[in-house]
Write a structure and sequence with these properties.
mainly alpha, 323 residues, disordered N terminus
């Protein structure tokens, strides 16, 4: 372990916890996104809704990121755009899958990303993940299965396979964000804008031939639907992906993925308190297991290869995790 990671016992323990809190908050707002999407989209309007969801945040984020965007190199633009293509794939697969399968199956299958990510990271490093981390991840999957399934699964459908594809792409996205060398010292706001702009462009092209036009959908929304859409745009998109991009470059992708794996738990919380859903004993047990497994995994996740290097210039930028 480098000296920069072992200055004192207090700094080594508090810094990871401070990095984990924003990621946990992302899991909370993503948990609320299931309810929000149900309020603003149906199968034929998925792509148009995604154009609105992402397009609404681009001007605001672009204004904040403009000074940094002007300084980017061609390689940084291409690196961010490549990640944006991956981001668009995640949302297309996950959203279409979610509207063609049950919430139970979708919540369980997408949570497999928290197992796929450390396995992929270990494969890239050619090292075995700690046994304690694998046990924690397995316990988390069991908890999610109890939480979202409350008894079992039905046979896979096309929607299930689409959500499984989203879990695979999500894991690859987290690992790629940590390893794209061109953006290791790039301003986080600028990279987030490029990713969202690229994804929005993909959605806009798809919307030309799938479902209603985005402006047609926008005119059909009432005040309540606009409130849910703004929640999706500002919190579940802008805030969430800014934090995720920062976190995987400042911490371990496995830690980030495991914390984001509590998303189904928060989805259940919003379902109970807002939508009036009820949880059975198995679901309550699953929620407890997710919390225990997340904390256990946070403490035993594979550490980054070495600490982020200090950024130069007037503003410090988060660094990526080296390959």
């Amino acid at each position: 372990m480098p000296a920069s990671l072992s200055v004192s016992s207090s700094s080594s323990s508090s810094s990871p916890m401070l990095r984990d809190l924003p990621v946990l908050l992302v899991a909370v707002v993503w948990g609320s996104s299931f309810l929000a999407v149900q309020r603003v989209a149906e199968p034929r309007t998925v792509v148009a809704m995604l154009v609105l969801r992402f397009g609404l945040v681009l001007p605001l984020l672009g204004a904040l990121a403009w000074p940094a965007l002007r300084r980017l190199t061609r390689a940084e633009w291409l690196g961010g755009a490549g990640l944006g293509l991956g981001l668009s794939g995640i949302f297309l697969l996950e959203t279409y899958g979610a509207v063609h399968t049950s919430a139970t199956n979708a919540g369980l299958i997408i949570s497999l990303a928290m197992v796929l990510t450390p396995l992929g990271e270990s494969a890239l490093r050619r090292t075995a993940p700690p046994r304690a981390f694998l046990a924690a991840a397995g316990l988390a999957v069991l908890g999610v299965a109890l939480l979202t399934g409350d008894g079992g699964l039905r046979p896979p459908t096309l929607g299930d396979l689409l959500v499984l594809g989203a879990a695979l792409v999500r894991s690859a996205f987290v690992l790629a964000t940590a390893r794209v060398r061109a953006i290791r010292t790039t301003d986080t706001l600028a990279i987030t804008w490029i990713q969202l702009a690229t994804a929005t462009s993909v959605f806009a092209v798809v919307a030309l031939s799938v479902g209603p036009a985005p402006w047609t959908l926008a005119r059909s929304y009432g005040a309540g639907q606009w409130a849910w859409l703004l929640h999706l745009s500002l919190f579940c998109t802008l805030f969430a992906f800014f934090v995720q991009t920062w976190a995987v470059r400042a911490s371990s992708p496995s830690r980030v993925s495991l914390l984001l794996g509590t998303e189904p738990l928060w989805a259940a919380v919003f379902g109970i308190t807002v939508a009036g859903n009820r949880m059975g004993p198995l679901a309550l047990l699953g929620g407890a297991l997710v919390l225990v497994a997340t904390e256990w995994g946070r403490r035993t996740a594979p550490a980054p290869d070495h600490a982020p290097e200090p950024a130069t210039g007037a503003e410090a930028s988060p660094q990526s995790v080296p390959a």
